[in-house]
Specification:
By secondary structure, the protein is an alpha+beta fold. Among the domains are: about 85-130 and about 170-280, Cytochrome P450 (Cytochrome p450); about 135-165, no CATH class. The chain is about 45% helix and about 15% strand. It contains eleven helices and eight strands. The strands form four sheets. The chain has a two-stranded antiparallel sheet. A hairpin with a 5-residue loop joins β6 and β7. α1 (about 1-20) packs across α4 and α4 (about 50-85) packs across α11. It is globular. The model has no long low-confidence stretch (mean pLDDT about 90). It binds protoporphyrin IX containing FE. Protoporphyrin IX containing FE (HEM) binds near residues 69, 70, 223, 225 and 228.
Length: about 280
């Protein structure tokens, strides 16, 4: 990651030094987040400027936290839509009717109900980062939403957590909880978001920077890019689905558990890929 970040940094630095014409040639035309970061840094007051090493370190964070998460989330939506052609067609109709593939303005794109529901439902059931690692900085007690029975038969309503404990927070515990989302909590059903969620969800006080989901974490260390990710997914999917039809290929796709869940062909491979059969729409 560090090696690649350094390469990107060097490429962009050279392009930025050569001026606008060179930047325009690049993919993203200098509007990508890393070019913006570098440009902002070079125009900042000398005292506020990040050292080069830190900009490169921030790039690694963005590659892992921003690109890997969002690209795998988009891949997941495409994989699901390839398996559910009826949903794909309904989404395409919504996108074509609103001309979403022709550079629709942010607010208008944000308002499309099926696109929004498909993205939320995918992020609910398939959070790209499915586990959070945390360390308790002080002794605390974790209250449980429902009592649990321990192996020796006792009922527990809370869990004492001593300072220094390391624990994993699994997002699906909340995102797919039956008592919150209902009997079909493990089903991918975008309609549950339309027109609004049941009160069992809205009143559950789900901790999350993104409404009703834990996918982008909660609190001080929650995701700073969730709106960016949402809009990136919407912009990308509106273009792709307006122009192309996605179908399953003959390759078996497996989603692998990792820091960010990713697809491979078959169980043995570690190479991230999602071959689908893609055709031009009309
Ligand atoms: C679907 C896409 C995304 C998902 C599911 C996601 C999820 C998360 C989660 C769960 C965390 C907390 C990680 C932890 O504390 O261990 C996080 C942190 C972070 N995310 Fe995202 N993220 C996404 C996209 C983005 C994008 C597009 C950006 C930037 C443009 C971004 C930037 C960050 C950064 C910088 C952090 C670290 C914040 C900190 O530790 O203070 N993420 N993200």
């Amino acid at each position: 990651m560090d090696r690649r970040a350094r390469e990107i940094y060097a490429e962009k630095k050279e392009a930025l030094e050569k001026g606008d014409a060179e930047v325009t040639k690049q993919v993203g035309r200098g509007k990508d987040i890393l070019s913006i970061l570098m440009r902002a840094n070079s125009s900042a007051d000398v005292n506020d400027r990040l050292p080069e090493e830190e900009v490169i370190a921030q790039m690694s964070v963005f590659l892992a936290a921003a690109q890997d998460t969002t690209s795998n989330a988009i891949a997941r939506v495409l994989h699901i839509l390839a398996q559910k052609p009826d949903y794909q067609e309904r989404l395409r109709n919504e996108l074509l009717e609103s001309r979403a593939g022709d550079d629709l303005a942010y607010d208008d794109l944000n308002r499309l109900p099926l696109l929004d529901s498909i993205i939320r439902e995918t992020l609910r059931l398939y959070p790209p980062a499915s586990i959070l690692l945390r360390v308790a900085t002080q002794d605390t007690v974790l209250p449980l939403s429902e009592p649990i029975r321990t192996v020796d038969g006792q009922e527990m309503t809370e869990v004492p957590i001593p300072k220094g404990s390391e624990f994993l927070v699994g997002f699906l515990g909340c995102n797919a909880s039956r008592s919150v989302w209902g009997e079909d909590s493990l089903e991918w059903r975008p309609k549950r978001w339309m027109p609004s969620l049941p009160t069992s969800v809205t009143e559950a006080r789900i901790p999350g920077v993104y409404p009703n989901l834990t996918t982008f974490a909660a609190g001080k260390r929650s995701c700073i890019g969730f709106k960016f990710a949402e809009m990136e997914m919407k912009a990308m999917l509106s273009m792709l689905i307006s122009h192309f039809v996605f179908q399953l290929s003959d390759k078996p796709i497996v989603w692998n558990v990792a820091a960010i869940l990713y697809p491979t062909v078959g169980w043995e491979s570690l190479r991230p890929e999602l071959p689908l059969s893609v055709g031009l729409y009309k």
